[in-house]
Amino acid sequence: MLKDHANVMALFLQAGDIVGRKKLQKIIYISKKMNVPFSERFKFHMFGPYSEELSLRMEELCNLGFVDEKKEDKGNYYQYRYGLSEEGRKFLDLYQFDLPENQKLMTSLNEQSSRFLELVSTLLYFEELSRDEVKEKVFTLKKKSNYTEDDIEQAYTFIESLRVLAQ
Fold this sequence. Notes:
The protein is an alpha+beta fold. It has one domain (2-166). 58% of the residues lie in helices and 13% in strands. It is built from eight helices and five strands, in the order αβαββαββααααα. The protein has helices at residues 2-15, 21-33, 52-63, 86-94, 103-110, 114-125, 131-141, 149-166; strands at 18-19, 43-45, 48-50, 67-73, 78-84. The strands form two sheets. Strands 1-5-4 form a three-stranded antiparallel β-sheet. The longest helix is centred in the last third of the chain and has 18 residues, at 149-166. The two termini are 27 Å apart. This is YwgA family protein. It comes from Halalkalibacter akibai (strain ATCC 43226 / DSM 21942 / CIP 109018 / JCM 9157 / 1139).
């Protein structure tokens, strides 16, 4: 169990602060699809792949003081910023974790918008289907997001670049 917590904490060492719960979910899901050893299970949800396990793990890490959660008021909504605390850094100095060093992959993911990562994770979730079937799923399940054909092509190009970084 502790190994899984340490891997999530180690993500922050490589990616830095992550802004948004949805973005954190997508970064870990996409990383997992790039063979990064995260153990969380995901199901398809309103905003794409979602892990209840990850939500609970983050709550535990915040309660233990290993991860800082800052609630930022954005006017008409709140946004959460997550980062490794000093206590979390000290813990990782002492604990052996399994997350391989791939700062380029993590930084590349963290630089993207949560909207784009939602699309990328959705494409990866349905990757066993043909591209046409995946597009149909996106246009049906993500109708309110107004993704375009160009958005989907950019997401596929991004996925290919991630696969190169993940090697």
